[in-house]
Amino acid sequence: MTARLFEGERTIDTIPVGHRGIAYGDGVFESMRVHDGRVPWWPRHARRLADGAARLHLPLPDHEFLEAQVAAMASGREAGVLKLVLSRGGGARGYAPEPDAVPCWQLSIHPSPQAPATGLQLRWCATRLAIQPLLAGLKHCNRLEQVMAREEWRQPGTLHADADEGLMRDTEGHVVCAVSANLFVLRDGRWSTPRVDRCGVAGVCREWALEALEATQARLTPGDVEVADAVFLCNAVRGILPVARLGARTWDAHRAVADARRRLAAAHPAFPWTARS
Asked: Which band of pLDDT confidence, cut at 50, 70 and 90, is reported for residue 176?
């Protein structure tokens, strides 16, 4: 892994004492797919980063400087995942942020994940997402709910321990997302995805799919998912991932999922599609 740390526009060697991202999760992050030396969806990621920073009142580094550093990190790399973490920076102990905080941020590059050979095997997670509209949609740095959900795979005697991913519900029982991806379901020829106005992350690939597939946003129950004609997960790192099984429910390959993947391949070169993929 290659990483660089910054305080504002200044390169630093170590994370400052009192770093609020570590102490409180006071920050946001982006995970971006690198392809052929660039980040094809950088404008979408930059827009979401700015929106998240504005909602949390986080200071942002200069946009042109930030963009140049992202481009430099991606340059020369055929493929990979570039992670950008932005925090409010260092400060005194306590929740109250410094009024003149200088943003502390980091860039790191990681290998691309392997594409699954078959459709995903899913499970239901016991861990629930708390309803908090103030943070809904944000990719903020407090991901403990997702950490606890992913830890369920390792608990002795767990069902479907061989699952690739898990679906998460909120505390009222509505389906929200997968642990690290958004969810789309096909019913009566129309795609829909759970609302993320009370919890969950408004993913960059989700944003694309809402537009490209003319999908709707809805409150979905577990029953809505299990009776769907087709299901896929998506995120900006792995693209569209067809789902083959959820517990006892199975799905065969569906032409609507293939069409969605074909459309994504035309929009993002890191996610090529062929009739055999």
From this structure: very high
The rounded distance, in Å, linking the Cα atoms of 79 and 200 is 28
276, part of any domain: no
- SS3 of 200-248: the string is CECCHHHHHHHHHCCCEEECECHHHHHCCCEEEEEECCCEEEEEEEECC
- CA 107 and chain centroid, separation: 16
Q: How far apart are CA 204 and CA 199, in angstroms?
A: 16
pLDDT digits (tens, 9 = 90+) for 114-124: 888 899 999 99
Can you give the CATH number for the domain in which 181 is found? 3.20.10.10
- Tokens of residue 163, six digits: 């699952």
Q: Could you tell me the residue range of the domain that residue 234 belongs to? A: 120-267
Predicted confidence (pLDDT) per residue in 54-111, tens digit: 999 999 999 999 999 999 999 999 999 999 999 998 777 889 888 888 999 999 999 9
> How far apart, in whole angstroms, are the C-alpha atoms of residue 108 and residue 85?
9
H-state helical runs in the chain:
20-24, 42-56, 63-74, 144-151, 204-212, 222-226, 255-267
| Position 141 in a domain | yes
Asked if residues 169 and 176 have their Cβ atoms less than 8 Å apart, the reply is yes
Q: Are residues 127 and 75 in the same domain?
A: no
pTM of full prediction above 0.90: yes
